[in-house]
Amino acid sequence: MRTIFFLLQKEFIQIFRNKMMLPIIFVMPIIQLLILSYTATFEIKNADIAFVDLSQSRSSRELIAKFKGSPFFTIKGNAFSIKQYDKSMLNGDIDIIIKIPNDFESSLLNGRSTFVQLISDAVNGSAANLMTAYALQILFDFNRNIITETYGKDLMSSQIKILPRYWFNPELNYKTYMVPGILVLLVSLIGAFLSGMNVVREKEIGTIEQLNVTPIKKYQFIIGKLFPFWVIAMVDLIFGLILAKLVFAIPILGSVALILGVAAIYMILVLAFGLFISTITDTQQQAMFIAWFFFVIFIIMSGLFTPVEGMPKWAQIINIINPIAYFIDFMRLVMLKGADFVDVQMQILKITVYAITMLGLSIIRYRKNA
Amino acid sequence: MNNAIIIQSLSKSYGDVEALKNISIDIKTGEIFGFIGSDGAGKTTLFRILTSLMIPDHGTAEVIGFDVVKDYKELRKNLGYMPGQFSLYQDLTVKENLNFFAGIFKTSIAENYHLIEDIYKQIEPFKNRRAGKLSGGMKQKLALSCALIHKPKVLFLDEPTTGVDVVSRAEFWEILKSLKQQGITIVVSTPYMDEAALCDRVALIQKGAILTIDTPENIVSNFHEPIYAVKAENRHKLFEDISKFEATKSAYWFGENMHWIPKENFDEKSLENYFNMLNYNNIYIQKISASIEDVFMELMIK
Fold first, then answer.
1. Predicted structure pTM score
2. B103 in reach of chain A (CB within 8 A)
3. Which of A97-106, A175-184, B36-45, B88-97 has the highest mean pLDDT?
4. pLDDT tens digits for A290-342?
5. pLDDT at A10 over 90
6. Which residues lie closer than 8 Å to A366 by C-beta, 6 or more apart?
């Protein structure tokens, strides 16, 4: 115990003496949480739209006015040929083009159907989907008005109407969805990177030699290395949860004790991951890049931005070793759905087994004599 | 226990490179034993094996009665090691470093203060300074204090004086002598041949093999070849010409002078004649007695 005390004392002195460490541990995650939570959103506002109005009629102007009234669209032009928009479309100045044919009004007045062409910039697929959906909504409303006008009654009122209800996040607030995930991401990075870097640093500056000739036992060394960062990551997480509640009003429906309890196990997993990386590398640079290699993959595949269900089968299999995916899943379930221990026991079991495996692996890999 | 360290046919290779070739040495309890050799001679590899940081490919080594492979746990409690590279925490202060190493050896500064007193007194005024901000000489003293704080029976110092100024080097050797008085066996490596004379016994090591082991006095007295110090105006030309000379057994720079060892049946007269033939002016040739460095140079050139 005394040995561990001296190891911990040394680590904490070093951590808090490092001028960059306090900002890295406490300021950077907060700034990231604030920035990412506001920006990592799928909502589309101010899509740029242009029209090719060949009809130049009262009806076509009415349709354009509908778009003008929508908060989603900013009208960027009205021309006579799609060709004129080639360049703006290429530059990304225009997201969507609607072409109204010259027989638009005459067809409508004579009771014939007519076609409106909708072209969208689909470089960003999900954004294109959303914009097209918004535009279709407006066209659909317009269509319905015409039918009512032409036939004197709303023929479409008798059809099935869909009234969606969004559970757990009724206003489809992306922050509610994103903040728990981003929080997981930040504490994972803090844990894995700091613990990994720290051990490699001892190798790099040669102090590990001096430690290795002492009677320090393996487990003492590993506790001495992991515990300080475990405390820091937990403090960060608690801080982040408070921020999520106060600044973003994210609901925390489930038990805070459950969240912290599982987070405590999860942090051991992440720290052990960092430690494992440090055992297979010799310099901080190597450790940094290998940690990035894994964590970029883990983050993108974690379900933070895109649902895991939408990924190909093989990707879902890879996700078995993705610690971030497990914990984001757990956090969203508990925070947003109020899941209790029984609901998430599978996630907890997986995180625990993974943590033990990773810790075991890194202990085996860490050798005092080369 | 007469021998503190028993090394038997120790070998270690890194891939194709043989760092140690079948080395056997006995080091006596309480002596200052020096390994002299240039960079890459195998000194650090040997030290790493003796301090249990590395496992040898073949052979065995016993340090103060403990096998370096099997009994490494017990051994580590009783050895002090100062690696060649400064290996203390630069961001901790002098006091914090010492406190830390005392702590993990389950002792305290107060308990063994008498051991480090002479050394630590010199750096004590700077005890609240970070180790990284110390001068080279002070860093060495701190590293030595940390290696001694747990009262080791044997001390391994890997090139402790490399990169340290001349005054600090001399001081450092004085400290080692006083530690020897306390009964600590000291094993030291150095690339500086002049430090060999300060050891009780030395081993000359080159390319992983031991060339000679003896006391510095015996090494010198067993050397019987004549040596001449040679000086001329054009240093570069001197070296070229003397190397070409048929009577030259070996020639090497020694500070300002060349040291020249003639083949059998030749002497300074033949060298003088040779220089006259080449129209040298102002040549200086003086017969000298061999120093330990001369012996080493001669052994290494062979």
1. 0.77
2. yes
3. B88-97
4. 999 999 999 989 888 878 888 889 988 888 899 999 999 999 899 888 888 88
5. yes
6. A218, A221, A222, A275, A279
Q: Is B126 on the interface with A (CB under 8 A)?
A: no
Q: Which residues of A touch B96 (CB under 8 A)?
A: 10, 13
Complex prediction ipTM: 0.78
* pLDDT confidence bin for A157, thresholds 50/70/90: low
Domain residue extents for chain B? 3-216, 227-301
Minimum CA–CA partner of A218 in chain B: B73
Give A14 to chain B, closest Cα distance, Å: 7
Nearest residue of B to residue A368 by CA position?
Answer: B53
- Give A369's pLDDT tier (boundaries 50, 70, 90): very low
Residues 220-259, chain B: which have Cβ within 8 Å of A? Answer: none
Note whether A214 contacts B85, CB cutoff 8 Å: no
C-alpha span between A274 and A236 (Å, rounded) = 17
The residue length of chain A stands at 370
Q: Which residue of B has its CA nearest to A206?
A: B87
Q: Does B35 touch chain A (CB under 8 A)?
A: no
Q: Nearest CB to B106: which of A2, A207, A370?
A: A2
Please give the interface size between A and B, counted as residue pairs whose CB atoms are below 8 Å apart.
Answer: 73
Domain boundaries, chain A: 2-40+171-365, 47-158
Tokens of B63: 């340090």
**What average pLDDT does range B87-92 have in this prediction?**
91
Kindly state the average pLDDT of the residues B29-42: 90
Q: 198-227 in A: which are within 8 Å (CB) of B?
A: 205-207, 209-216
Residue contact B92–A10, C-beta within 8 A: yes
Interface test with A, best of B104, B128, B129, B158 (most A CBs within 10 A): B104
Q: Residue A117 above 80 pLDDT?
A: yes
The answer to whether A370 contacts chain B (CB < 8 Å) is: yes
List pLDDT tens digits, range B221-234. Answer: 888 888 888 888 77
* CATH classification code of B3-216: 3.40.50.300
Structural contact between residues A282 and A264, judged by C-beta atoms closer than 8 angstroms: no
CB-nearest to A212 from B53, B85, B105 is B53
Q: Fold for domain B227-301?
A: Alpha-Beta Plaits (3.30.70)
How far does A18 lie from chain B, in Å, by closest CA? 8
Residue A285 C-alpha, separation from nearest chain B C-alpha, in angstroms: 20
From the list A17, A206, A215, the residue facing B91 with the nearest CB is A17
Q: Which residue has the higher pLDDT, B47 or B292?
A: B47
CA distance A223 to A105: 78
Higher pLDDT, B136 or B107: B107
Kindly report the CATH number that applies to the domain delimited by A47-158.
3.40.1710.10
Which residues neighbour B199 within 8 Å (Cβ) at sequence distance 6 or greater? B32, B33, B34, B188, B216
